[in-house]
Design brief:
783 residues; mainly beta; six-stranded mixed sheet; five-stranded mixed sheet; 49 strands; 34% strand; elongated; disordered N terminus; CATSPERD/E; CATSPERD_beta-prop; developmental protein
Length: 783
């Protein structure tokens, strides 16, 4: 009897030690729209999910958008706050077996893989489409969402989607990529794909690393292969692959991946480079190194940027944090929360909810049973023995914001940390892509609070890893390509009770700074010198370009007719004034957010937008000290195809003739060197022609900025005399002959006067003059 009492007491004590000693949530049912018997029918094929365990996908940016995948599929726009009809395809779309194997929410569209084909549902327009471009069966799609709206790079993240066939041999599988949110796909070419061994476990765009990753599965092990330097030189570290792992990319582009199956739960904080099992705390003093060791069966999981929740078939909920150093899972139980159709989700930070659809025998619309939980409240149970959070405040203005770092730029961020009295937490700052972005952190005391707590200020300096000068070139990514990284500030070994103290995260685009632009200096204009009238330029001013001076195809050939050009004063302003006989180069200024930054010395090119070719350059390829044959507009336009001429030559296709790695031979050293700026003193020389030139200027130096910096400006060339109508040879040859005759006469006539013939000739002229005087009355009057 005593033994039995001890056993009962021990069991009671064990129950009290877990969070199950209290009620986890209050269950309630959502039932709406069923007061009146409104006829509702499901049209088309009834969709269902292929797995026997449900999934719940939430839109990371639009909190009320979610998708439930189970024996029925439900799509909600109010976070399941109303009864819903199961999702079905319209009758116009025939799919055969309406089985859904994968789903993804991309911006404002829902993507579903139904019977090995991809379908797009625009839920805002309530319109279905079949994707275009996929020619082989696919089973899965993957993508991500960026919640920093308005930035072009953020839009590109949300638009990028992969489609692939899970389990196919990776060396010969067909992978498709879409940059249109799944409307159109094209085959994705992965370098060295034919050399890879194993089956395909997934294709993902890891924006946190600016890499495409392929998951290889071979003989019970899995590892990632990456697409770009420097990670493409080797495979990632292998990890155990048991069952068919679902892979969840957590929101926020932090590079956190969650791999899970019924008996396996793995996590990676660096986009799959290192994958490790998640430890489990069953009780305050009982811990396991993995889910399989804890002998629990996972039903489904949910995650947000910083938290993880796991619902198990043992009627328990496990909770953990996803900081820089992830914590163990802690067990919550004590209430009947599991069912076969139940799914777990986060509704907010620290707010977990278990959702179960309930059929209604009277109506086709399903109700929803909801079981909300406040994690912070549960963790306050003293029986859990959870340590109190040692940090009172961690804040920074950069949290949940997006920044751009252009080439040769630097970004300064600040944060404030206030620890609890007597505690000394260690702040940690980390970038998700250290191959591209480097950081330096300084921490110092910055006064005290009213309670006497010390305030710690952190200054974070971010710069391209190339420009810190501390990394080996084999470690850094290509400087020519724009990349992305996140910066995360957290506290080391943060207690799981710090639910509301989430890490500070910002998304850094190492690429084009949209606030930058170039301006052409205009200190001396044709208007300020009285050559042109600004009022007249604004009054529908037009001018004529002679057919001998322009080529609409930009090949330097004369046109067949003159061209009338309307001058756009609102865009070009008053033209800059240039004397035709003086070599000239525009002064290019860099501006940012309306403020002057510098006079750029980067290499740039010019193209007259109307096809004028009455100008050349002061340097040839040889004079510019080119090692290889330089590029020019002729070769660029021939290779550009349908690309607009003004944008055909930019930083992406520019190759410097001074680059030692450029092995193109210098075959024509006397051709004009058409690149201005940079290391040369090259300038433009205008022909003998007055008039307006409208130039498009493009910065082509790949190491100056990631932006395609370009602008259009005008120049007025003056001082050139009109060309003579009479041919030059007709004028010069008689003039030269007359000059030679004069010189000959000046030499020969004095010499001949001293000869006998010369004296007779002289006497003849004297007699002739005397007779003329006698005959002319005017000479007689002077005597």
């Amino acid at each position: 009897m005593l033994v039995l009492m001890l056993v009962v007491a021990a069991a009671t004590l064990r129950l009290c030690l877990v969070a199950g000693a209290q009620q986890l949530c209050r269950i309630h049912t959502v039932r709406t729209g069923k007061v009146f018997h409104v006829s509702q029918q499901i049209q088309g094929d009834h969709l269902y999910f292929s797995s026997r365990t449900p999934r719940l996908i939430k839109h990371p940016c639009k909190k009320n958008i979610a998708l439930y995948l189970g024996r029925q599929i439900f799509f909600t726009r109010d976070n399941f706050k109303s009864s819903l009809l199961p999702l079905s395809l319209p009758t116009s779309i025939k799919v055969g077996v309406p089985e859904v194997t994968s789903a993804h929410i991309a911006g404002s569209v829902l993507l579903l893989v139904v019977n090995q084909k991809v379908y797009v549902y625009d839920y805002e327009a309530n319109f279905w489409n079949a994707s275009i471009g996929i020619e082989h069966p696919v089973s899965h799609i993957s993508g991500d969402n960026c919640c920093y709206s308005g930035h072009p790079f953020c839009v590109d993240i949300s638009n990028s989607v992969f489609a692939y066939l899970h389990g196919d041999q990776i060396s010969q599988t067909n992978v498709y990529f879409s940059n249109t949110r799944g409307y159109t796909f094209q085959k994705f070419a992965y370098e060295r794909q034919a050399e890879l061994v194993g089956s395909l476990g997934g294709v993902f765009y890891f924006h946190s690393l600016s890499q495409v990753g392929l998951l290889l599965i071979d003989q019970g092990k899995a590892m990632f292969s990456y697409s770009e330097h420097p990670l493409n030189r080797s495979l990632g570290l292998p990890f155990d692959y048991n069952g068919t792992l679902d892979i969840l990319i957590t929101p926020g582009q932090k590079g956190i991946l969650i791999f899970w199956f019924e008996k396996s739960l793995l996590v990676s904080g660096n986009a799959g480079q290192l994958v490790y099992p998640v430890p489990v705390d069953e009780e305050p003093r009982i811990s396991y190194s993995s889910v399989s060791e804890a002998n629990v069966t996972i039903h489904n999981i949910a995650a947000n940027q910083n938290e993880l929740a796991v619902l198990t078939r043992e009627n328990s909920l496990y909770y953990g944090s996803l900081g820089i150093l992830p914590s163990s899972l802690i067990k919550f139980s004590g209430q009947n929360i599991w069912s076969q159709e139940a799914a777990v989700m986060f509704t907010d930070v620290g707010q977990v909810e278990i959702l179960t659809p309930l059929p209604d025998p009277m109506f086709p619309a399903f109700d929803f049973q909801r079981c909300p939980m406040n994690v912070q409240e549960i963790l306050m149970d003293p029986q859990l023995q959870v340590d109190i959070c040692k940090v009172e405040l961690l804040q920074g203005e950069f949290d949940n914001r997006m920044y751009s770092i252009d080439m040769n730029s630097e970004l300064q961020l600040t944060a404030l940390m206030i620890p609890r009295p007597g505690r000394s937490p260690v702040p940690l700052a980390m970038v998700s892509n250290p191959h591209s972005l480097g950081l330096q952190v300084a921490i110092y005391e910055d006064g005290y609070t009213y309670d006497g707590n010390t305030k710690h200020r952190l200054n974070i300096s971010l710069r391209q890893q190339h420009h810190w000068g501390r990394a080996n070139p084999n470690f850094t990514s290509s400087i020519k390509k724009p990349t992305v990284s996140t910066i995360t500030l957290d506290v080391a070994n943060k207690e799981i009770s710090c639910v509301d103290l989430k890490p500070l995260t910002a998304l850094i685009s190492v690429g084009c700074d949209q606030e930058k632009k170039i301006v052409i200096q205009n200190e001396i204009s044709a208007c300020s010198n009285g050559i042109l009238d600004p009022v007249g330029l604004q009054d529908n001013y037009s001018y004529i370009i002679e057919k001998e001076a322009y080529d609409p195809n930009f090949r330097g050939q004369m046109s067949r007719e003159d061209l009338v050009v309307n001058y756009r004063y609102e865009k070009l302003g008053c033209p800059r004034l240039v004397y035709y006989n003086t070599p000239w180069r525009p002064v290019v200024e860099l501006w940012r957010e309306g403020k002057f930054q510098e006079v750029t010395k980067a290499e740039f090119v010019l193209l007259e937008v109307n096809g004028l070719f009455t100008y050349t350059y002061s340097l040839t390829a040889q004079m510019a000290l080119c090692r290889s044959q330089p590029q020019n507009w002729t070769t660029i336009l021939e290779s550009s195809g349908d690309k607009r001429p003004f944008f055909a030559w930019d930083r992406e296709n520019y190759i410097s003739c001074h680059d030692p790695d450029n092995d193109a031979p210098l075959r024509w050293p006397d051709v004009p060197y058409q690149i201005l700026g940079g290391p040369t003193a090259n300038k433009v020389i205008f022909d003998q022609r007055n008039g307006i030139y409208v130039f498009f200027l493009s910065i082509v130096d790949p190491y100056y900025s990631y932006c395609h910096l370009g602008t259009t400006f005008s120049v007025y060339v003056y001082g050139a005399l009109p060309p003579s109508i009479i041919p030059t040879t007709v004028t010069i040859i008689p003039l030269i002959m007359a000059m030679l005759l004069s010189v000959w006469s000046a030499y020969m006539i004095p010499k001949l006067l001293h000869t006998e013939k010369g004296l007779r000739l002289k006497e003849f002229w004297m007699n002739l003059c005397r007779r003329l005087r006698n005959l002319c009355p005017c000479f007689q009057g002077r005597r």
